[in-house]
Amino acid sequence: MADTRLAAAAHSSFARHETFAPRFGWLHKAYMRVKDNPGTFIAEDAPVELGVGKNMVNAMRYWSKTFKLTREHLSEDGKTKAHIASPTWEARWLLDEDGADPYLEDPGSLWLLHWWLVSSRPGAKCWAPTWYTAFHLAPFSRFSVVEMTQVVMRHVNFSFPEGPVEASVTKDVDCLTKMYARTPAEQPAARTTDTKTGAKSNFEDLLACPFRELDLLTPVGSRGNQQWQFTTGTRNSLPASVLVYACLDYAARDTSSSGSISLARLANEPGGPGRAFRVREPEIVAALDKVAAERADVSRVDAVGQRSMSFSGDPFVLAWDVLDEQYGYVTHRPGFPTRREWDQKYPMLAKVAMAESQQQKHQPLALMEEIA
Description:
The protein is mainly alpha-helical and 372 residues long. 44% of the residues lie in helices and 10% in strands. Strand 7 and strand 8 form a beta hairpin. InterPro entries: DUF4007. This is DUF4007 domain-containing protein. It comes from Actinosynnema mirum (strain ATCC 29888 / DSM 43827 / JCM 3225 / NBRC 14064 / NCIMB 13271 / NRRL B-12336 / IMRU 3971 / 101).
């Protein structure tokens, strides 16, 4: 069933980013510190250790959590009542020095992180409900901050017994636009090259937030009536394997066995990769065909009136195999830990995931209801 009720897909968490969109280098630096010291974010010397101001420490903590790179929990020894953070296996796979892409040099890694940010699965709900609503539930592709805030507030009031003040949601929407939309100087037509250094004029802006490279959002409208619009179409920087990974990951919400899922669902369902990446069914078909040409366990099936993705085996396992192959089989490198070994090193990870999964099972299924 699609996530039509926000609470089924996301936690109630708003304006925890201190108005800062994620910056280049933050996620790697946070992971490297947290893996050795789970109390990094709450330590008095955190600004010194992380090399940023106190508000940015809070932002780094927030983004590490929302990208599902850390899980927060109480310490096992009970020495502090504050929540500490353990790095997830996914963070180890991506951001360790011998991981897939610790410095996020491959645009595909940004697409992958975007999927982790706005997706939801059992035991790992989305921690950014405003982002989830904007990509999956909003009934329009062009919006102003006021319009998106109103839509998020309607979903929040429908879904959660207690919601945030409207100003918090407005901060989220403003942060979302800063995260994905290029400034006028960053637009392709406005880019210039320094004749001495050869550097692009927008280099510092992209360092400020690398997710603008995805070109998911573009500013439109006139001065005094600022609006933004989600872009659609072919994503040249989105690797086929990352898109197919997301499709299989989405299918894994419903089954852990061999099966199939319609491409229409993948393209159009709230919570699915089509809405997350703003791609249509033809783009999913092209990516699936490209991956299926090299594998026998994933394929496209054309039936009367419907096209589907078929998979032989647990789609969650297949998703990671497809992704791991894209990055040169990170999990095959000497000393790389299995998920079980990582959970043994950080035992609270599995406990927190289990608790969240149990909580989701007891939530009533949402009605297929439009509240736009």
